[in-house]
Specification:
single chain; alpha/beta; Rossmann fold; 7-stranded mixed beta sheet; two-stranded antiparallel sheet; 8 helices; binds 2-acetamido-2-deoxy-beta-D-glucopyranose
């Protein structure tokens, strides 16, 4: 069973966070939701509280994971972009050529942690200029896959992003099976 680590930080976007967890689990990926700051419930951007499965410190010691997932929401994205624990996880992930998935303001971590330099990415429009300035190749596609880096734009593209994560990690056939009962357009 492929594994994914979804990082959960205060102020993170709840739709993006749960879309990734839900769709990866539908795709039979073993998902660990890891609290950046520990095991307490995390208040997300619209005051929905989500309880992590364990702390990031504990989850990181059980890695590696096939995929590391960083949802957006400005509060959470800034916390992840400032975290040395996230930095070392992402650096290790990139070095081993394993998947990294980000959405919305999540790609702030690419810039601050020096990950995926020069790769093709998308993001929420509010950090577009930052990514261009940092010399990423910017796309406005709803989901962008460049090698093992998978990015997307916001809450409205989160389900498509989740399906792309399943397609990359598990395969197209499984992604199609997961997609059907979601009643996508
Ligand atoms: C979240 O709750 C706090 C404290 O009750 C409140 O000040 C804030 O406006 C709420 N945020 C949203 C997006 O509802």
């Amino acid at each position: 069973m492929p594994t994914a680590l979804v990082i959960l930080a205060p102020g993170q976007e709840e739709i993006e966070t749960t879309a990734a967890i839900d769709i990866l689990r539908r795709g039979k990926v073993e998902v660990t939701v890891a609290g950046l700051e520990g095991t307490d419930a995390v208040v997300c951007s619209r005051n929905v509280s989500i309880v992590p499965d364990e702390s990031l410190e504990s989850a990181a010691s059980k890695g590696p994971y096939d995929m590391i997932v960083l949802p957006g929401g400005m509060g959470g994205a800034k916390a992840n972009a400032a975290s040395s624990a996230v930095k070392s996880l992402l650096a290790e992930q990139e070095k081993a050529d394993r998947y990294i998935a980000l959405i919305c303001a999540g790609p702030l971590s690419l810039i601050s942690h020096g990950i995926g330099k020069g790769k093709k990415v998308t993001s929420h429009p509010c950090i577009k200029d930052d990514l261009i300035k940092a010399e990423y190749e910017y796309s406005e596609d709803r989901v962008v896959v460049d090698g093992k880096l998978i990015t997307s734009r916001g809450p409205g593209s989160a389900i498509e992003w989740g399906l792309a994560l399943v397609e990359q990690l598990v395969g197209k056939e499984t992604a199609d099976e997961v997609r059907a009962p979601l009643i996508m357009l």
